[in-house]
Amino acid sequence: MASSSYDLIVIGSGPGGYVCAIRAAQLGMKVACVEKRDTLGGTCLNVGCIPSKAMLSTSEKYHEAEASFESLGIKTGGVNLDLPTMMKYKDSVVEANTKGIEFLFKKNKIDWLKGAGKIVAKGQVDVAGKTYDTKNIVIATGSDVAGLPGIEIDEKKIVSSTGALELKEVPKEMVVIGGGVIGLELGSVWSRLGANVTVVEFVDQILPGMDGEIRKEAGKIFKKQGLNFKLSTKVTSAKAGKSGVNLTLEAAAGGDEEKMKADIVLVAVGRKAYTDSLGLDTVGVETDERGRVKTDAHFKTNVDGIYAIGDVIAGPMLAHKAEDEGVVLAEMLDGQSGHIDYNLIPGVVYTWPEVANVGQTEEQLKEAGIAYKAGKFPFMANGRARAMNMVDGFVKILADAKTDRVLGCHIIGPEAGTLIAEVVLGMEFGTSAEDIARTCHAHPTLEEVVKEAALAVDGREIHM
């Protein structure tokens, strides 16, 4: 039975919201979490990170069985796709994860206030017509799909990432608008399952903002895998009809129009902060020009007792960033100190091979005028990678030219998202490239590529 008065009410049960609620409850606060979905977990667990990773994993296995098994001495006698069963598996993964959050709420005595939340006054939240009093409010409503002017997402033929995870059949022709993380991940899924996928990107390279060398290598690898790219190109029109979607494209700098046709168009041009219907205007909470909630270094808005974390505030829209903010904020509300180094939040693209990064890129270091050394080592020269038949890509470590302190790490290759953790941990403690190079790494492992890249900073890699 929900109470009418709390120490903390969190609006939104995504990774930021539910983690903040759990940590606050662990610290002895009386906590409620508002969620309008029928299940907990927000975008990430329901229609984002978790279902997409399930589809990425299953499509990787399917593609490997279809394309590589025979060369490894595994004869299957033919591989067939059962898409309904694959989708059913994806749904079961989502259900297990969302039920897990529900269990954690019960374990930590957190009330789930079901319905849409609205801040009606300082210290008061309305949920489904009932008002609850609270000492503090945390806005953790996450983000929503960003659209394009004049292109209507119907989730049938013109889909967002949500619709792309629910397709009933593999499209013959698929156009992905946007060459960022979401577009490449979901484009990879449907390409592996048999679609002819074309990625249209407004700028001249995919993965905007990432290290230039990584972006080039990723483009080469994905092209080899069968993805088609139209770079420096914008979509000016996409109209759904009975037989598919008719698109009009032109060069980003302007020029002649080009017509395309697709069965499915995925709009993956980013996400926007979700602040609709929260009552922010009513209580005077300030937002920025992009609709994000303005906060100080302690996640506090301009209104006492109201805080915000995750995708709804400035910074990378990443689940693990939101989780860390949730923990730090809960501890601050308990009187503890807390800090997040936003330079040390890793990013991962779950294509195959994976792409991972932390810290600064070469472009950023050059722009800042920081003298650095780069050490690079390819997976091709690693015994374990060869044994796994996964030799694409490399690890690159950037270190200060004078102090040897690691300033950034960029990986494209097998298990990049796992390998980056070693460098993130090291950077949290001010590691040097020499520290990583002098640390004993088990053999044969992919982690040895990280060690060799650290050795390469000083020009003394062993296996090259």
The tally of beta strands, per DSSP, is 22
Radius of gyration: 24 Å
Query: What about the largest sheet?
Result: 7 strands, mixed
CATH class term of the largest domain: Alpha Beta
Strand content: 25-35%
Number of helices: 14
Flag low-confidence runs: none
CATH topology value of the largest domain:
FAD/NAD(P)-binding domain
Tell me roughly what share of residues is in helical segments.
25-40%
* Annotated CATH architecture of the largest domain: 3-Layer(bba) Sandwich
Number of domains: 3
Measured distance between first and last alpha carbons = 65 Å
Structural class: alpha/beta
Would you tell me the overall average pLDDT? 97
- Principal-axis shape equals globular
Superfamily at the CATH H level of the largest domain?
FAD/NAD(P)-binding domain
Fold and architecture overview:
The protein is an alpha/beta fold and 464 residues long. The protein folds into 3 domains: 5-145 and 272-340, FAD/NAD(P)-binding domain (3-Layer(bba) Sandwich), CATH 3.50.50.60; 158-269, FAD/NAD(P)-binding domain (3-Layer(bba) Sandwich), CATH 3.50.50; 344-457, FAD/NAD-linked reductase, C-terminal dimerisation domain (Enolase-like, domain 1, 2-Layer Sandwich), CATH 3.30.390. Helix content is 33%, strand content 25%. The chain is built from 14 helices and 22 strands. It has helices spanning 15-26, 42-47, 49-67, 83-107, 161-164, 181-192, 212-224, 280-283, 319-333, 362-368, 383-387, 416-428, 433-438, 447-457; strands spanning 5-11, 31-35, 111-114, 117-121, 124-127, 130-139, 143-145, 158-159, 173-177, 196-200, 228-230, 233-241, 244-251, 257-262, 264-267, 271-273, 306-308, 347-349, 354-359, 372-378, 394-400, 406-413. The strands form 5 sheets. Strands 1, 2, 3, 4, 5, 6 and 17 form a 7-stranded mixed beta sheet that branches. A 5-stranded parallel beta sheet has the order 8-15-9-10-11. Helix 3 runs antiparallel to helix 4 and helix 3 (49-67) runs parallel beside helix 6. The termini are far apart.
